[in-house]
């Protein structure tokens, strides 16, 4: 049985590590995460069809997140092997990487929705009209374009899954290293009995057997390539299935379609992932705040460092790039809609 921990810790035990849990590091990651969510919501919900340039912009945003997560994990492995890493800070690294993965998962979800609902994967396919046939389609050109699109689709699937698989496998490996030897993990094992894991706002000792077993089972699954992406992606699709049932019931009661199915699926997926993001962020912040206010972590955890400043500068650069991408997106969308109007 899991029993929440309570009580005060008598004195600081864990050495401060602001380059992992500092305010600047967290703000940088949260900023990238919500920029990614905002871009997906703006592009995918306003349009029934996603253009090639929009897919490229969304893929770039998700790729940057995965690279940030991989860099964070590499630093954690390096510091753990050279300088030592405590259980408390390893839990923070794991939580931050789950936040990164959930936000980047939006790209996989949106592309899956495009495939399921018959949207084009890379660009809108327009009929090519031949003037010699009175405006009818040129089937040879159309078939060649469809073949090229299929090849591009195969390449895009491999590129779509490569970084998530690598990121999750590394995340699972770190989780396995932690939970298989949690009592002796890190350079300060004497602090482990006072270390807690936050779950839905409640704190639980990392030495609790139920917590250890469930965490080991989860991270063993996450460490398996391809299976990790399939299982974690199923969470968003399960929520969409439940919401689709609600929409179907509402349609039967009102006898009218409230929302198109593809738009509804996108809204449901983005909403589900946003809720999960808020849960992980709140649990991470509560865990860090508890470590500071209960004197588990020594002085200096909230100290501003060079690494945090660099992380925030990187966030500002990405914000500027995102604004440029959105401006280019509006221009491309305007030209696309203008071309459609002239064609009709």
Strand order of the largest sheet: 1-2
Strand content: under 5%
The assigned structural class equals mainly alpha
Q: Main sheet?
A: 2 strands, antiparallel
Q: Find the count of extended strands (DSSP E, 2+ residues).
A: 2
Shape: globular
Question: Helical percent range?
Answer: over 70%
Word description of this protein:
The chain contains nine helices and two strands. The chain is an all-alpha fold and 344 residues long. Strand 1 and strand 2 form a beta hairpin. It is globular and about 65 Å long. The model is unreliable at 6-10 and 119-154 (pLDDT under 50). Helix 3 (52-82) packs antiparallel against helix 4.
Short summary:
This protein has 344 residues and is an all-alpha fold.
Key terms:
single chain; mainly alpha; 9 helices; 71% helix
Which SSEs are present, and which pair or pack?
Elements: H1 18-21, H2 23-46, H3 52-82, H4 87-116, H5 139-179, E1 196-199, E2 202-205, H6 209-222, H7 227-254, H8 261-293, H9 306-343
Antiparallel strand pairs: 1-2
């Amino acid at each position: 049985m899991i029993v929440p921990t309570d009580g005060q810790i008598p004195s600081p035990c864990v050495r401060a590590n602001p380059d992992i849990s500092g305010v600047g590091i967290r703000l940088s990651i949260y900023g990238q995460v919500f920029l990614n969510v905002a871009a997906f919501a703006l592009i995918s919900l306003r349009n029934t069809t996603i253009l090639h340039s929009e897919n490229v912009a969304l893929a770039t945003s998700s790729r940057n997140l995965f690279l940030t997560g991989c860099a964070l994990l590499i630093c954690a492995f390096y510091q753990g092997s050279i300088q030592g890493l405590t259980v408390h800070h390893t839990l923070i690294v794991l939580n931050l990487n789950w936040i990164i993965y959930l936000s980047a998962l939006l790209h996989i979800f949106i592309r899956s929705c495009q495939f399921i609902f018959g949207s084009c994967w890379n660009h809108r396919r327009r009929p090519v009209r031949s003037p010699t046939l009175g405006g009818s389609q040129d089937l040879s050109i159309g078939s060649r374009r469809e073949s090229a699109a299929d090849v591009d689709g195969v390449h895009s699937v491999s590129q779509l899954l490569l970084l998530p698989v690598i990121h999750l496998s590394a995340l699972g490996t770190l989780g396995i290293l932690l939970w298989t030897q949690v009592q002796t993990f890190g350079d300060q094992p004497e602090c482990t009995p006072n270390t807690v894991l936050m779950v839905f706002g409640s704190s639980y000792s990392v030495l609790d057997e139920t917590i250890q077993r469930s965490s080991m089972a989860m991270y063993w699954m996450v460490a398996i390539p391809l299976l990790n992406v399939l299982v974690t992606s199923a969470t968003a699709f399960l929520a969409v299935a439940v919401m689709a049932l609600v929409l179907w019931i509402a349609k039967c009661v009102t006898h009218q379609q409230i929302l198109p199915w593809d738009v509804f699926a996108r809204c449901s997926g983005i909403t589900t992932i946003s809720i999960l993001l808020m849960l992980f962020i709140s649990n991470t912040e509560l865990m860090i705040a508890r470590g500071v206010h209960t004197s588990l972590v020594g002085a200096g955890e909230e100290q501003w460092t060079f690494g945090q400043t660099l992380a925030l500068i990187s966030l500002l650069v990405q914000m500027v790039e995102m604004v440029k991408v959105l401006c280019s997106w509006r221009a491309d969308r305007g030209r696309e809609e203008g071309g459609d109007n002239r064609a009709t």
